[in-house]
Amino acid sequence: MLYLLVEFSDKINALNVFRYITFRTGGAVVTALLFVFLFGPSIINLLRLKQGKGQPIRDDGPKSHLLTKKGTPTMGGLMILSGLVVSTVLWANPANPYVWIVLAVTLGFGLVGFYDDYLKVTRQSHNLFSGRTRLAIEAVIAAAACFALSQLGRPQLATSLAFPIVKELLFDLGWFFIIFAAFIIVGAGNAVNLTDGLDGLAIVPVMIAAASFGMIAYLSGNIVFSEYLQIHYVAGTGELAVLCGAVIGAGLGFLWFNAPPASIFMGDTGSLALGGLLGSVAVATKHEIVLAIIGGLFVLEAVSVIVQVTSFKLTGKRVFKMAPIHHHFEQLGWTESQIVIRFWIVSVVLALIGLSTLKLR
């Protein structure tokens, strides 16, 4: 809403600063951070009071988790989403449709995750929300968003798949683009969800990816920078940098409480929502393939589960000691902090590789 102050910049010259996406992105980071810092303790206390026993720990997971994580409240995604929404509404241009579409996906996936978390904490059991039903709801939300996004872009670009490095190569998918893009968003949401298994493991890679896509959105939405870098110009997507900034701020605030030993877990409420957000921004900016690079850690976690399940069903043997793959390393004797920090390092390296594709044309 602060963007509306630009209308008075002819009278008060200082208000002209609200025109700049970079300034408003910085404001979004600080606002979301302060919001989570200020209201986080109250939210944690409320969730601990309402949930009682906290998130149920899986019996088939690492045995150490039954001792170290039992009783910790979940649904910490509510902290992140509340800070993210407040900050975005305050700093983003309310007339920009990309912001509202991505926010709609984020909150829609967040509601799906919230319902799943609610069933877990109230009935102290997993697998109460049918996986097929959950995926179907996510697919409908994602498909609706992708249809809306396809109506905003240039006709020759809206339904096309762009390839990194090869600047002129576009593959027009037609109406199949909606199915493909929805798959990207749903896949991103569930990949982040699978990564969220250790204290701090998911939120930092999410912030790294958000920072990367904030930069991509800003460059893709700026005709001068996009022409210089020879990436596809998508008018209006620059405003998504503000939303990505809000993710970084809210994520930093959440990490303060999620750092080992965690006072609260993100839960499906946060992981599904944040993954859906990253997928939506990637689709909006036409960088779907780059998402697989920058978010390579999430892809690895998801693939490890697919490989494990497929191998066990076909051969009766497991490829990993336990899936997702971060549990495999736990079984190998790595400490939780070793796994988390090393996975953060991997995320940084992958982000740098992904961002390098902006110049390699």
| Number of domain units | 1
Structural Rg: 20 Å
Order of helices and strands: HHHHHHEEHHHHHHHHH
Q: Quickly give the structural class.
A: mainly alpha
Order of adjacent strands in the largest pleated sheet: 1-2
Major sheet description: 2 strands, antiparallel
Poorly predicted regions: none
The total count of helices amounts to 15
* Shape by Cα distribution: globular
Helical fraction: 55-70%
Percentage of residues in DSSP E strands? under 5%
Q: What distance separates the N and C termini?
A: 38 Å
How many beta strands in the DSSP annotation? Answer: 2
Average pLDDT confidence is 91
Description of the structure:
This protein has 361 residues and is mainly alpha-helical. It has one domain (2-287). Helices cover 66% and strands 2% of the residues. The chain is built from 15 helices and two strands. A two-stranded antiparallel ribbon has the order 1-2. Strand 1 (160-162) and strand 2 (170-172) form a beta hairpin. Helix 8 packs parallel to helix 15 (336-356) and helix 12 packs across helix 13 (296-315). It is globular, with a radius of gyration of 20 Å. The relative contact order is 0.16.
